[in-house]
Write a structure and sequence with these properties.
single chain, seven-stranded parallel β-sheet, Rossmann fold, alpha/beta, 36% helix, 10 helices, 308 residues
């Protein structure tokens, strides 16, 4: 059955793939778009567009009155509070606002893109994602929550983890760092991930939209390959025929620099991002089996977009 879907966060990396999947399954995407981001919505001519941002209650109200379900996909990689780009504002306050307005307008189904590893005592990124989950769970809506691991895939003009690593680390004329805690590098670069392809994440979300079974459930979404940081770097470099040396690197001095310069966009990483990176990001995901999806493997073939 065709659904009119209010999509928040449709112009970014994952959002555009969700739009693709909605359209491929006969649904009608209703997308909230900031004027400065309008050009980032790849299939804009096939979407119903509402101009505004996540604080614009009147635009959101109109949008929800024309919708059957909500997908909230707004997420920040890093925040710049002085520019109004803040985790709490977009991860939590935005969810709280749209949940309440969805309840008022009679929408029942609400799907939330969260993140693997969220927790109440984590980094601001992890805490605000966790707060959003809890608020949604305590609402009257029929909810489903998705917690993806590291997402990869063709960025199509947006920010994506592997292409960003290629640009900010692997293309530089010095060895790539195998981070480790403490003084002894015996476990350097050993923290683990389950990279998951962005198209598979979009498929899972849209499948959940069409089925009542996922209601009231939280899904971890990770790929079938478990890879270390060391293997991740080598696979990315190999995908575009790059031989890259690696070297053990204590994370403390790098994190100290990130604590000072991480507030500037020109510095490639923040201290909190380093903390989350070294925690690893793995999950035992059964979601693909449940939805009958064969996930894309993380390997040189699936990373060929790095040659573009």
């Amino acid at each position: 059955m065709t659904k009119k879907v209010a999509l928040f966060g449709g112009t970014g990396f994952v959002g555009n793939y969700i739009v693709d999947e909605l359209l491929a399954n006969g649904h009608e995407p209703h997308v909230l778009v900031r004027p400065q981001s309008a050009s980032k919505l790849i299939q804009s001519t096939k979407c119903i567009i509402y101009n505004g941002n996540i604080e614009n209650v009147s635009a959101i109200n109109v949008m929800l009155k024309n919708a059957d379900a909500v997908i909230y996909n707004i997420g920040l990689i890093r925040e710049f509070p002085n520019k109004g780009i803040a985790f709490e504002k977009l991860h939590f306050e935005g969810v709280k606002r749209t949940v309440r307005l969805a309840e008022e307008t009679g929408i029942k189904h609400y799907l939330l893109m969260s993140a693997n590893g969220v927790k109440p005592d984590g980094t601001p990124y992890q805490k605000t994602k966790y707060m959003a989950e809890q608020f949604l769970k305590n609402s009257s809506l029929a909810w489903t929550i998705f917690r993806p691991s590291l997402i990869f895939g063709n960025p199509r003009g947006n920010i994506e983890f592997c292409s960003q690593l290629k640009r900010d680390m692997l293309s530089l004329p010095f060895p790539a760092p195998l981070f480790y805690e403490g003084l002894i590098p015996k476990d350097a670069g050993s923290f683990l991930f389950n990279p998951v392809h962005v198209a598979d994440v979009a498929r899972v979300i849209v499948n959940a939209l069409e089925d009542s079974k996922p209601i009231g459930r939280t899904y971890e979404v990770g790929g079938e390959n478990t890879v270390s940081w060391n293997t991740l770097l080598k696979t990315i470099a190999s995908a575009y025929s790059k031989k890259k040396w690696t070297i053990p690197a204590p994370v403390f001095p790098i994190k100290s620099l990130a604590s000072i310069f991480g507030r500037f966009s020109w510095f490639p990483i923040t201290a909190d991002q380093l903390t989350m990176l070294m925690e690893g990001n793995t999950c035992s995901s059964k979601v693909f089996e449940e939805f009958g999806i064969s996930p894309v493997e993380f390997d040189e073939n699936s990373l060929q977009y790095l040659n573009e």
